[in-house]
Amino acid sequence: MTDLPNLARRGFLLGGAAAGAGVLLSACTSNEQPQAQTNNNNNVASAQGDNAKPGKMVTIGFSAPAADHGWIAAITKNAKAQADKLKADVTFKPTEGTNDVSQQIAQVETLINGKVDVLVILPFDGKALTSVGQKAMDAGIPVVNLDRVFETALAYRTWIGGDNYRMGVNAGSYIASEMKKKNIASPVIGEVAGIDSLPLTQDRSRGFKDALAKAGFKVGPRVSAEFTVESGEKQTANLLQAANKLDALWNHDDDQGIGVLAAIKSANRSEFIMVGGAGSKNMMDLIKADSSVIKATVLYSPSMSSSAIALARLLGQAKGVGDLAEHEIPASVTTYSAVVTKENVASYADVGFDS
């Protein structure tokens, strides 16, 4: 995700279940050095082997915003669960989550001074924390930049996060498909966005618009909220009052989605389908029950923090990813925004988070 000034939120598990996503990454990565395979006297790169076996001890420092709502809380919970899963060769040193930029900088500096081997940082404000990320890199401590990207790649060794544009594309593509199934030629499609000044919101809306345009549709009534229950309810109420008919609605964020659904219930509206965003357990449960307007949600999964810890371990042990032929950890990893529906919701239950 892109930088999030003034917001303790993104822009992709609960405890033990969350650990699985990151474990998959580490499990496919070996204590053995990569070997070249020969074929007609030509060297051919091979996969890096099984790095799930314990290696040298690695101390991983972790810093994230305050766990004051569902998605961020799940980010922190997943990171801790993954580190515990890897405790045979990982020492985990988390800081207390904070939405105070100066305090987060000070906490990261303490980890740097404590000479951790690797740092995993989800910055409250990517721009503001760029300098401390670069300070760690200059001190020889690799940084895994989680989700909200720093201003320069010099401040991190590896970035892992979600794809906001693809999130919008997949939401729009799902809605377009459903409209065509219903033979609705000119659907009224609403959108409850996040904070419009944020690049992540702009990317999501652009992807949504592009996908609908490809299908010959367009975005109709649109409001922006603030990723909170209260703002979701207020802004959705405004949208519903202005639009006496809807065929579909995309809400960018399942945390604010609680308020969105409350507004829909208060207005006694049910003539449309709704798609959520991020993948909360609450929304997945409703999708599975198929008892409300919510029919799908597009993932932006906090399981990415589990994978970030797995990547940090491999960086600290100078290993690569097992199924890749590259000797080094990739410079960036972008998670995929899968569409969760009634048909596949059971497959994604392990990545659902409590709003």
User: What portion of residues belong to β-strands?
Assistant: 15-25%
CATH superfamily of the largest domain: Response regulator
CATH topology type of the largest domain:
Rossmann fold
Strand arrangement within the widest β-sheet reads 4-3-5-6-7-13
Task: Specify the overall morphology.
Answer: elongated
CATH architecture label of the largest domain: 3-Layer(aba) Sandwich
Task: Give the low-pLDDT segments.
Answer: 1-40
Q: Please identify the structural class as seen in this structure.
A: alpha/beta
The SSE order reads HEEEHEHEHEEHEHEHEHEHEHEE
- In DSSP terms (H or I, runs of 4 or more residues), the helix count works out at 10
This entry's quaternary arrangement is single chain
Separation, N- and C-terminal Cα atoms: 19 Å
Tell me the number of structural domains. Answer: 2
Task: Please give the share of residues in helix.
Answer: 25-40%
Quickly name the level 1 CATH class of the largest domain.
Alpha Beta
- By DSSP, the count of extended strands is 14
Main beta sheet: strand number and arrangement? 6 strands, parallel
Subcellular location: Cell envelope
GO molecular function, one term: carbohydrate binding
Protein name: Ribose transport system substrate-binding protein
Domain Periplasmic binding protein: 60-314
